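Re: [ENG-882] Designed sequences occasionally contain unexpected residues at chain ends

Forwarding the minimal case from QA. Structure tokens:
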């Protein structure tokens, strides 16, 4: 017998993805992927309770860990590059006297649990980020208010999406064939009305099976899902962090980014984009111990 909060797989899909039961209404369960951004419903009779992730998801976790380690390595390489480029006159006690300004992220997520995971990852990577749990249909309106106040370098628009079973047309080019791609397009268009320069505002948009072409055409720098596959919960975060920690002097290496997402080129794609990271001189001082003679 299954109940709220249980980990389950769907028998009709061969138990390929592990879900958590979010809600039960009569004999139907609302289930959410533990690793992939998938929200679905299923009859309780189709669900089998499990105690660990499916084999394919364990591989996804390993890949996600490797991606995180890759970002940490990039962070270290960036520090080494900064040290080699800052002249010796800007060193104090052997330490470089500069400060860092990574790109700021505004992350809107239609899933509260995934948002918490994403914010935790930004914190680990020391990427400044503002996260908001917003239903996909409300993201465009939320951006009108949030963009002028936060003034981010990077916007992430994600949550849940998917190709509809009972869609009005079999045409995958039609936005009506998708659950939330229309809302992502509207949000991207709102962001592009605020900032048209693709290097001044990097937009990462989409979720599982999103209309990749429509999201790019609306103005996204990176989007899902070229092959209409499920994407890993943290793929948008990886791309945003990569943009935040790539120097303003460099373009983000697209192949490097896509090869190190869990979903790969079937799940995400994008266009050439400049990084957002800057350094400044001199290093910011601790004002609590600074002795200043007032001039006024």
């Amino acid at each position: 017998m299954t109940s709220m909060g249980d980990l389950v797989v769907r028998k009709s899909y061969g138990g390929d993805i592990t879900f958590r039961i979010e809600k039960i209404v009569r004999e139907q369960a609302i289930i959410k992927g533990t690793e992939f951004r998938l929200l679905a419903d299923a009859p309780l009779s189709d669900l089998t309770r499990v105690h660990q992730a499916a084999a394919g998801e364990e591989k996804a976790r390993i890949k996600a860990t490797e991606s995180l380690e890759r970002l940490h390595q990039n962070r270290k390489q960036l520090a080494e590059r900064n040290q080699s480029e800052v002249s010796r006159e800007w060193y104090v006690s052997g330490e470089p006297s500069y400060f860092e300004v990574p790109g700021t992220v505004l992350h809107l997520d239609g899933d509260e649990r995934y948002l918490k995971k994403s914010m935790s990852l930004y914190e680990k990577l020391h990427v400044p980020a503002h996260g908001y749990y917003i239903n996909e249909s409300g993201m465009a309106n939320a951006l009108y208010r949030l963009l002028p106040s936060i003034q981010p370098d990077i916007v992430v628009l994600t949550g849940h999406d998917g190709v509809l079973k009972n869609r009005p047309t079999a045409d995958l080019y039609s936005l009506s064939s998708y659950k939330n791609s229309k809302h992502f397009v509207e949000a991207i268009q709102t962001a592009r009305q605020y900032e048209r320069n693709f290097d001044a505002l990097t937009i990462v948009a989409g979720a599982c099976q999103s209309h990749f072409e429509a999201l790019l055409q609306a103005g996204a720098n990176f989007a899902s899902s070229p092959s209409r596959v499920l994407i890993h919960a943290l793929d948008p975060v990886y791309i945003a962090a990569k943009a935040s920690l790539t120097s303003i002097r460099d373009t983000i290496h697209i192949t490097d980014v896509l090869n190190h997402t869990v979903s790969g080129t079937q799940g995400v794609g994008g266009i050439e984009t400049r990084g957002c990271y800057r350094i400044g001189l001199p290093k910011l001082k601790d004002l609590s111990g600074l002795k200043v003679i007032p001039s006024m």
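QA comment: On inspection the terminal residues look reasonable. Residues 203 and 256 are 18 Å apart (CA to CA). Proposing we downgrade this to a documentation issue.
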